[in-house]
Amino acid sequence: MDVTPGVDEVHQRLLDRILTGYYPVGSRLPSCRALAAEFGSNSSTVDRAIGRLASGGRVRTIPRRGNFVQEVQEAAVDARSVVAAQLDDVLLRARRLGFSGGELTTMVQVALERVDSMRRIAVVECNPRDLRQVQELVQRAIDVEVQPVLLSEAGGRVLDAEFDAVAVPIFHLNDVADLVRDLDQVIDLNLVASPTALRQLIGVRNVERLVVVAPSARGVQWMTALVGQYFPGQIDGVEIGRDDPALLDGAPVLVVNNAAQLPPDIADRVGRIIAIEWELDGRFTTALRARVENVISERAFVGVPGRSVS
Description:
This protein has 310 residues and is an alpha/beta fold. The chain has helices spanning 7-19, 32-39, 43-55, 79-96, 101-116, 128-142, 159-162, 195-203, 217-228, 282-302; strands spanning 59-62, 66-69, 121-125, 146-150, 165-169, 187-189, 191-193, 209-214, 234-239, 254-257, 273-276, 278-280. The protein has 4 domains: 7-69, Arc Repressor Mutant, subunit A; 79-116, no CATH class; 121-190 and 283-302, Response regulator (Rossmann fold), CATH 3.40.50; 195-276, Cobalt-precorrin-4 Transmethylase, domain 1, CATH 3.40.1010. The chain is 42% helix and 17% strand. The longest helix is centred in the C-terminal third of the chain and has 21 residues, at 282-302. It starts with 6 loop residues before the first helix and ends in an 8-residue tail after the last helix. The relative contact order is 0.10. Keywords: DNA-binding, Transcription, Transcription regulation. It holds the Pfam family GntR.
């Protein structure tokens, strides 16, 4: 059964976030791709939902900059009424299912305690696929809802003012330096290649040469260091967007990450392609939740502008 959220559900979730101040007036909404990854929907559905918000005056779209929450002068929507109506619907369904008043009161109190203890955690990545994957990994490790932030669409934001904690793969620390006030408070994620990718690398050890591909010089260096731990032969690096794509032609093995935008016909030009998928280092996972809480506690102690931590 298809459980992909439709336009109505995505629109309601976005509207709820705007009404509750989760997306304050003047803030930029995450990209359609990032929201689609978070909601388990698709970019077209999210775009239509945002269009509906724009038609209602809740969002203003600025070409090449994004969608921004704007204040609605007229009292077109009352947040209390919206929440009260939704609560009525939930309670009515619960009553029909046989829950008593006492049971519902307890459930509401537990839910309030859970909501009040929730932390706003952001995960930053450079491409939508890795973003969704790392978001799920971190969310599973710390059991807290995690918001995705795409690097290419984060310009001008101050992430540690928007979120209680910001987590980023260690190889992207430099990339977020201009997006936070205190880089020392950013949680660096130690990612390792998935076992499937490592087995594939080990499986080509007898090949004399392979080529690693990434969209930046630093990415090429990182990938080369990773591959060099498992491959004893010659490793050449190609930086997509700078180096001549013809350098890929005839490569017996191509090792790429999800950020690399390869030519559409690349599979016909090389012998084999190994795509690197990431996982959280197991030695790091157990300590991740404690690191998140430590960062939040330190922020609360020093008092970070723009966020209040209870």
